[in-house]
Specification:
Blueprint lengths: L23 H22 L1 H7 L3 H32 L5 H4 L25 H25 L8 H17 L7
Length: about 180
Amino acid sequence: MSFGNKTSGGGENGDGRSPFGGSQLFQRTYREGMALVEEAATYLDGPGRDQAKDLPRATALAYATESMRLTTRLMQVAAWLLVQKAVNEGDMTETDALSDKYALGGRELGRGKKLNGTDLLPDALKELIVRSENIYRRIDRLDAQMRAGEEIDHSSLAEQRERAEAFFQEALGSRPTRH
Protein backbone atom coordinates (compact mmCIF):
# COMPACT_ATOMS: atom_id res chain seq x y z
CA MET A 1 0.00 0.00 0.00
CA SER A 2 1.86 2.99 -1.18
CA PHE A 3 -0.23 6.03 -1.42
CA GLY A 4 2.63 7.81 0.25
CA ASN A 5 5.83 9.25 -1.09
CA LYS A 6 9.44 8.48 -0.42
CA THR A 7 9.95 11.44 1.86
CA SER A 8 7.02 10.70 4.15
CA GLY A 9 7.70 6.99 4.47
CA GLY A 10 4.60 6.00 2.52
CA GLY A 11 1.19 5.02 3.70
CA GLU A 12 -1.34 7.05 5.56
CA ASN A 13 -0.37 10.09 7.57
CA GLY A 14 -1.16 10.04 11.27
CA ASP A 15 -4.47 11.69 10.44
CA GLY A 16 -5.50 8.82 8.12
CA ARG A 17 -5.03 10.89 4.98
CA SER A 18 -3.07 9.88 1.95
CA PRO A 19 -0.03 11.95 0.95
CA PHE A 20 -0.66 10.92 -2.67
CA GLY A 21 -4.16 12.38 -2.66
CA GLY A 22 -2.75 15.70 -1.50
CA SER A 23 0.10 15.75 -4.00
CA GLN A 24 0.32 18.15 -6.92
CA LEU A 25 0.39 15.15 -9.25
CA PHE A 26 -2.93 13.93 -7.92
CA GLN A 27 -4.52 17.39 -7.80
CA ARG A 28 -3.53 18.08 -11.41
CA THR A 29 -4.71 14.64 -12.57
CA TYR A 30 -7.98 15.05 -10.66
CA ARG A 31 -8.68 18.45 -12.24
CA GLU A 32 -7.78 17.16 -15.69
CA GLY A 33 -9.91 14.03 -15.34
CA MET A 34 -12.98 15.79 -14.01
CA ALA A 35 -12.69 18.55 -16.61
CA LEU A 36 -12.51 15.91 -19.34
CA VAL A 37 -15.63 14.20 -17.96
CA GLU A 38 -17.47 17.54 -18.08
CA GLU A 39 -16.15 18.38 -21.55
CA ALA A 40 -17.20 14.99 -22.94
CA ALA A 41 -20.68 15.28 -21.41
CA THR A 42 -21.12 18.77 -22.85
CA TYR A 43 -19.99 17.62 -26.29
CA LEU A 44 -22.11 14.45 -26.36
CA ASP A 45 -25.22 16.29 -25.13
CA GLY A 46 -24.78 19.21 -27.52
CA PRO A 47 -22.68 19.43 -30.68
CA GLY A 48 -22.01 15.70 -30.74
CA ARG A 49 -25.69 14.85 -30.73
CA ASP A 50 -26.28 17.22 -33.64
CA GLN A 51 -23.31 15.86 -35.60
CA ALA A 52 -24.40 12.27 -35.06
CA LYS A 53 -27.72 12.91 -36.80
CA ASP A 54 -25.98 13.59 -40.11
CA LEU A 55 -23.64 10.59 -40.13
CA PRO A 56 -23.92 7.65 -42.57
CA ARG A 57 -25.31 4.47 -41.01
CA ALA A 58 -21.95 2.68 -40.43
CA THR A 59 -20.42 5.83 -38.98
CA ALA A 60 -23.49 6.42 -36.78
CA LEU A 61 -23.04 2.92 -35.35
CA ALA A 62 -19.34 3.61 -34.76
CA TYR A 63 -20.30 6.94 -33.13
CA ALA A 64 -22.72 5.22 -30.75
CA THR A 65 -20.19 2.54 -29.85
CA GLU A 66 -17.26 4.91 -29.40
CA SER A 67 -19.28 7.41 -27.38
CA MET A 68 -20.35 4.58 -25.04
CA ARG A 69 -16.72 3.45 -24.72
CA LEU A 70 -15.70 7.05 -24.05
CA THR A 71 -18.27 7.59 -21.31
CA THR A 72 -17.52 4.22 -19.70
CA ARG A 73 -13.77 4.91 -19.73
CA LEU A 74 -14.31 8.34 -18.20
CA MET A 75 -16.69 6.96 -15.55
CA GLN A 76 -13.93 4.53 -14.52
CA VAL A 77 -11.41 7.38 -14.38
CA ALA A 78 -13.77 9.57 -12.32
CA ALA A 79 -14.57 6.73 -9.91
CA TRP A 80 -10.87 6.01 -9.33
CA LEU A 81 -10.10 9.69 -8.78
CA LEU A 82 -12.99 10.05 -6.32
CA VAL A 83 -11.77 7.03 -4.34
CA GLN A 84 -8.29 8.57 -4.06
CA LYS A 85 -9.85 11.86 -2.98
CA ALA A 86 -11.90 10.02 -0.33
CA VAL A 87 -8.71 8.43 1.04
CA ASN A 88 -7.00 11.81 1.17
CA GLU A 89 -9.95 13.38 2.97
CA GLY A 90 -10.08 10.57 5.52
CA ASP A 91 -13.44 9.24 4.32
CA MET A 92 -11.94 5.90 3.27
CA THR A 93 -8.92 3.89 4.34
CA GLU A 94 -6.12 2.94 1.98
CA THR A 95 -6.91 -0.71 2.66
CA ASP A 96 -10.49 -0.22 1.50
CA ALA A 97 -9.36 1.77 -1.55
CA LEU A 98 -7.01 -1.05 -2.56
CA SER A 99 -9.76 -3.68 -2.49
CA ASP A 100 -10.73 -5.18 -5.85
CA LYS A 101 -14.06 -3.40 -5.57
CA TYR A 102 -12.30 -0.06 -6.19
CA ALA A 103 -9.76 -1.21 -8.78
CA LEU A 104 -9.71 0.68 -12.05
CA GLY A 105 -12.06 -1.16 -14.38
CA GLY A 106 -12.76 -1.00 -18.08
CA ARG A 107 -9.51 -2.44 -19.42
CA GLU A 108 -11.49 -4.47 -21.95
CA LEU A 109 -12.60 -1.22 -23.64
CA GLY A 110 -9.23 -0.87 -25.32
CA ARG A 111 -9.46 -4.34 -26.80
CA GLY A 112 -12.55 -3.74 -28.91
CA LYS A 113 -12.14 -4.16 -32.62
CA LYS A 114 -12.12 -1.10 -34.84
CA LEU A 115 -15.52 -0.57 -36.37
CA ASN A 116 -16.30 0.44 -39.93
CA GLY A 117 -16.87 4.16 -40.13
CA THR A 118 -14.57 5.23 -37.29
CA ASP A 119 -12.38 7.18 -39.70
CA LEU A 120 -15.38 9.40 -40.49
CA LEU A 121 -16.20 10.22 -36.86
CA PRO A 122 -16.26 13.93 -35.98
CA ASP A 123 -12.81 15.26 -35.08
CA ALA A 124 -14.06 16.52 -31.72
CA LEU A 125 -15.11 12.99 -30.73
CA LYS A 126 -11.82 11.52 -31.95
CA GLU A 127 -9.93 14.06 -29.84
CA LEU A 128 -11.98 13.25 -26.73
CA ILE A 129 -11.35 9.54 -27.30
CA VAL A 130 -7.57 10.04 -27.53
CA ARG A 131 -7.49 12.27 -24.46
CA SER A 132 -9.61 9.82 -22.45
CA GLU A 133 -7.33 6.95 -23.47
CA ASN A 134 -4.28 8.96 -22.41
CA ILE A 135 -5.57 9.82 -18.95
CA TYR A 136 -6.89 6.28 -18.53
CA ARG A 137 -3.39 4.86 -19.24
CA ARG A 138 -1.81 7.26 -16.75
CA ILE A 139 -4.29 6.31 -14.04
CA ASP A 140 -3.90 2.63 -14.87
CA ARG A 141 -0.15 2.98 -14.22
CA LEU A 142 -0.78 4.76 -10.91
CA ASP A 143 -3.31 2.12 -9.88
CA ALA A 144 -0.89 -0.68 -10.76
CA GLN A 145 1.89 1.00 -8.77
CA MET A 146 -0.33 1.33 -5.72
CA ARG A 147 -1.56 -2.24 -5.94
CA ALA A 148 2.00 -3.53 -6.36
CA GLY A 149 3.03 -1.66 -3.23
CA GLU A 150 5.33 0.71 -5.11
CA GLU A 151 5.92 4.22 -3.88
CA ILE A 152 4.34 6.99 -5.88
CA ASP A 153 7.19 9.42 -6.47
CA HIS A 154 5.95 12.97 -5.99
CA SER A 155 9.29 14.64 -6.58
CA SER A 156 9.41 17.61 -8.89
CA LEU A 157 11.40 15.53 -11.39
CA ALA A 158 8.67 12.87 -11.43
CA GLU A 159 6.00 15.53 -11.86
CA GLN A 160 7.94 17.15 -14.71
CA ARG A 161 8.30 13.75 -16.36
CA GLU A 162 4.54 13.18 -15.99
CA ARG A 163 3.78 16.58 -17.53
CA ALA A 164 6.18 15.93 -20.44
CA GLU A 165 4.61 12.52 -21.02
CA ALA A 166 1.11 14.01 -20.97
CA PHE A 167 2.23 16.67 -23.46
CA PHE A 168 3.61 14.09 -25.88
CA GLN A 169 0.54 11.90 -25.52
CA GLU A 170 -1.73 14.84 -26.30
CA ALA A 171 0.44 16.33 -29.05
CA LEU A 172 1.44 13.15 -30.82
CA GLY A 173 -1.37 10.82 -29.84
CA SER A 174 1.19 8.27 -28.72
CA ARG A 175 3.35 7.36 -25.78
CA PRO A 176 6.94 8.61 -25.60
CA THR A 177 9.74 6.07 -25.75
CA ARG A 178 11.43 5.29 -22.47
CA HIS A 179 15.19 4.79 -22.36
